[in-house]
Amino acid sequence: MVVHQHRRRGAAAVAVAAMVAIGGCGGPEGAPAGADARPPGDPTAAVRGAADALTRSGSAQARTAMEMATGGTRITIRGEGGVDFKKRMGQLLVMLPADVTGKPGHRPITELLTPGALYMKNRGAGVPADKWVRVDTTTLADGNLVTGGATDPITAAELLRGAQGVTYVGETDLSGTKVRHYQGTTDIGRAARSASPDVRGALEAAAKGFSNDAVPFDAYLDHEGRLRKVRHRFSYVNNGVIDVSSTTLLYGFGAPVTVVLPASGDIFAGKIAE
Predict the structure, then answer these.
(1) Are 157 and 60 within 8 A, CB to CB?
(2) pLDDT tens figures, 151-210
């Protein structure tokens, strides 16, 4: 596996904060690959075009799982919500796992995904419960691929624009839908250059923050070319190497998604603890 290293700089480190003292389980399960390995057209072009297919679909429901391992500790942060691919906006409810005593680790965090910014409520770490935190994703060393505890589904799809060395594994079943399974690596820098303008800044930040641009992935596309599931594998340095497997599952295409941004007075302006 190719690994990618960066040092986290930013106050919105949900992913790193969750590593303090907790253990967890795996991400969403995928079906085994089918035996048909005949590629339906150009595999690389199919994967690179997945983001455009999602934009044409309009919107979708999403589930995310970010599994992190460092030393002997492994945790999983889960999220669920919806994404409007045309407006480039979404909302996720991110659930942190229980701590090692078995008590609830944290109230669910509400995340609003917008072009260039991430809003979080119930952030903790000194932020009042009724206030939101706004983070400029273009200033994060990872472009919010890891920091928020869930890779933005829009960015996860746009990251595939840099796909290379793609192979077609075969057809399989994913929650009752026939999908085509592809494997390869995606280049963050290449993806940033090809990304939609609303996503480009975050990916450009990630391309600068990671020491290696190559990110291994498994992508599952339906017969309309829409991304149904993608798993990216990252590694980075934060007081030791942390391996991250970020999975996004998309379903319920066309479902309405409403995102209401907080008023300026509801955004926390004080110091945020690391």
Answers:
(1) no
(2) 999 999 999 999 999 999 999 999 999 999 999 999 999 999 999 999 999 999 998 887
The answer to the question of residue 8 being in a domain is no
| Domain annotation covers residue 146 | yes
Q: What share of the chain is helix, strand, coil (3-state, %, to 5)?
A: 20, 35, 45
Token pair belonging to 163: 């796909």
Residue 65 lies in a domain: yes
Whose CA is closest to 226, among 201, 245, 252? 252
Assess if residue 202 is contained within a domain: yes
- The token pair that represents 219 in the structure block: 């992508």
Contact between 119 and 136 under an 8 Å Cβ cutoff? The reply is no
- DSSP class of residue 7 equals B
Which H or E element spans position 115?
none
Q: Are 84 and 61 in contact (CB under 8 A)?
A: no
Mind giving me the DSSP string for 193-214? HHS-HHHHHHHHHHHHH-S--E
- Of 248, 246, 229, 251, the C-alpha closest to 180 is 229
User: Is the dihedral angle over the CA atoms 177, 181, 187, 190 positive or is it negative?
Assistant: negative
